[in-house]
Amino acid sequence: MAHRIGALGRVYAFGAAWMGVIVMPVYVPFLAARGLTISDVLSLQGIYAVAMLLFEIPTGYVCDLLGRRRTILIGAVANLAGFIAFAMAHGFAAYAVVQLVLAAGFSLVSGADIALIYDILDVENADRTTRRKAISGYMIAGVLGEAGLGLLGSALATWSLTAVGVATAVEAALPLLIATTLPGGGNRPSAVKIADVPPAVRELFLRPGLGLLFANMTVWGLSTFIALWLLQPYWHEQGVGTRWFGPLWAGTLVTVAITAKLAHQLTARTGRRGALLIVALAPVAGYAGMAWSGGTPGIVAGFLFYISRGLNSVNLTEAFNHQVPSRLRATFNSMNSGAFRLSFAVAGPVVGIAVKEHGLNWSLALLAVAFLLAFVLIGVPLLRRPAAL
Question: Would you list the DSSP string of 4-36?
């Protein structure tokens, strides 16, 4: 027990440092100062998504092959290099290259962190409640790190956006330092073979419940990720000053932390199907509220995405990892992340063009309709298979 708590504590510390990107609450204004538009920002995220898609499954396999700690260390090195370049770059082309470096680092860590947590818990044969709480703890650590350092970024932005970029690069060294203290995880190097991957992929798509769960994780993750890039321009349109971006950003992340913390109790009250309804319909209500409200009600509606994110990251992640084979867990998680990145690679630039051509409110309304349709197509069928949850 003490070993598990100590090992998980180090993983949580890594998660807090990894997610604590100082520039995030002023990301759009920062890039605007470097000559980029909101359409450019979404296009950059599309490039990032394509790069993540190309890297995800190979890096997931690398993680299962080399071990969790080694893979996380390599990812942290790439992350540090990427944010040093981020602080120095100017113009769209330079930032496109930066996105490739950051995508390489993030794809190496993506899936490896959750797989490491599960490896630690597998040693003690922990039950599903313990696993759900462990994922919740990791989620909370990440969002609190993101919120705390986001407040720092917002404060620095009132002085100098250049200082924000420098501080972001300096902070990127912290997850690398913490990664050197992580446990190795339960898997041994060379524990898997490349021939194991195709059967795993077939299993994912041939098992209807698992495939539906995979699709819901992807789509509702996409729904909240698109919103993340629209909140800052929305706040600007509502007349919110940049100095308030940090507190608002921190507030959204605290909402994730609270939701993740209460996920177990909430699920006990509503049932797993009730929790899925919240995961799926909160983004629909968020987009609709932002599109057809304004001022404070519209800003409050934006917090609904983070309720969905908190429940999705605990409930659906736990359900998915419970059903996949442990020795290929990082590969499966990377497949999910890759599907999510592919969906954003398609949707992100389209949303950027829609905002540019038709305005933010029209685009928000369209997104509300699109994700309501997605709920009918993939959410309702999963509700009919409660065993998959």
Answer: HHHHHHHHHHHHHHHH--TTGGGHHHHHHHTT-
Q: What are the pLDDT digits (tens) for 37-90? A: 888 888 888 888 788 778 876 776 676 677 788 888 999 999 999 999 999 998
DSSP H helix total and E strand total for the chain: 18, 0
What are all long-range contacts of 129-133, with beta carbons under 8 Å and residues at least 24 apart? 129/264, 131/318, 131/321, 131/322, 132/263, 132/264, 132/314, 132/315, 132/318, 133/264
Q: What is the pTM of this model?
A: 0.72
- Cβ 79 vs Cβ 172: under 8 Å: yes
Tell me the DSSP string of 318-359. Answer: HHHHHHS-GGGHHHHHHHHHHHHHHHHHHHHHHHHHHHHHH-
How far is Cα 287 from Cα 293, in angstroms, rounded to an integer? 10
The CATH number linked to 36 is 1.20.1250.20
What value does the mean pLDDT take over residues 1-24?
81
* Count of the separate structural domains present in the chain: 1
Distance, in Å, from the CA atom of 220 to the CA atom of 237, rounded to the nearest integer, reads 25
What angle, rounded to 10 degrees, do the helices at 208-237 and 245-292 form? 100
The residue with tokens 């798509």 is 205
| Domain interval for residue 330 | 2-388
